[in-house]
Amino acid sequence: QAQLVESGGGSVQAGGSLRLSCAASGSLFSFYTMAWYRRAPGKQRELAASITTDGRIKYADSVEGRFTISRDYAKNTVYLQMDGLKPEDTGVYYCTAETTYWGQGTQVTVSS
After folding, report:
1. Most buried residue, 12, 54, 107, 111, by CB count within 10 Å?
2. Letter string b/e over residues 67-89, b meaning 16 or more CB atoms within 10 A of that residue's CB
3. In the structure, what pLDDT confidence band is assigned to residue 29 with cuts at 50, 70 and 90?
4. Cα 98 to Cα 26: distance, rounded to the nearest angstrom
């Protein structure tokens, strides 16, 4: 069983950057596809980015070219580098392992 702890959220102005981190406990991190989902106010949760164990990456069209997902096996951590942030990126960002284990979420607020 994995436990996930996100950090790095906050408030920025449009055009700014944030880096989210998700530290995973347990020995199975190496075997899980990791992903970041987000839930904007009044909307359903949606995939932002995912990365498989062999490095295949998928991005939502809305973040392609602005967000970068990566994972560090030595630290059991997955990152989401977010550049060129827009107000519509505002929401709660969740880290997940295989969409089975979920973190508690971290708030990202982008002001115009």
Report:
1. 12
2. bebebeeeebbbbbebeebeeeb
3. confident
4. 14
